[in-house]
Amino acid sequence: MFKHLREDIASVFDRDPAARNTWEVLTCYPGLHALVIHRLGHWFWGHGLRWLGRLTSHIGRWLTGIEIHPGATIGRRVFIDHGMGVVIGETAEIGEDTTLYHGVTLGGTTWNKGKRHPTLGRNVVVGAGAKILGPIKVGDGAKVGSNAVVVKDVPEGATVVGIPGRIVDAGPTKEGARFAAYAVVLNQDDPYSKAIQSLVEHSHELEESVAGLTARLAELERELARREAEAGQQETLRVVK
């Protein structure tokens, strides 16, 4: 118990530069409190004391604003930053060294019993407001951008953004990949937005080409009219003579 607590405190210092000292982390970090309370509720749940587990979970939700079902499985050194509004379902599984920000939902998409919540690998980062729904898997080292809605499996090391979630960066698959706060990484432009932008730029190029052709056509028409006028004048002079 105390070993896990020491690891949790160390993970806060590793991933939150605002943490100043151990006393502050112990007393002022609701994510840490939620995990400690969850371990107790999970113990009750695993030993058949389901009502006590749910009651413990409810108390933790009331104290921290973080709702973790006592049946959820959470690995070591998980860090819930800020935490308000986080919801973790009964059959959710979270791997070690994962980071969740506020407003994250690990939810189910069916009323059927059994596995219905997501499984997150190790070193996953889930940005604020992201929703990961259904019995899908998010691979080790993956990043889910803020407010993304993910309903399909995410490969190891990938970065997912948007609604619905789309992979924008295959990324490194090594477990030691650099931590990215809020899952913000370079070059994570949405491919759909890039495609639309490309079409818009192509449309502008076509408009410029059409404008150039129109101007050239008008110039040729003026030149033709001038030549026809000169030819008419010459014909008139020839008839007069």
Structure description:
With 241 residues, the protein is α/β, with parallel strands linked by helices. The protein folds into two domains: 2-185, Hexapeptide repeat proteins (UDP N-Acetylglucosamine Acyltransferase, domain 1), CATH 2.160.10.10; 189-241. It has helices spanning 2-15, 22-28, 30-46, 50-64, 191-240; strands at 67-68, 73-74, 79-80, 87-88, 93-94, 99-100, 105-107, 119-120, 125-126, 131-133, 137-138, 143-144, 149-150, 159-161, 166-169. It has a six-stranded mixed beta sheet. Strands 1-4-7-10-13 form a five-stranded parallel beta sheet. Strand 14 and strand 15 (166-169) form a beta hairpin. Helix 3 packs antiparallel against helix 4. The radius of gyration is 31 Å and the shape is rod-shaped. It starts with a helix and ends with a helix. The model has no long low-confidence stretch (mean pLDDT 86).
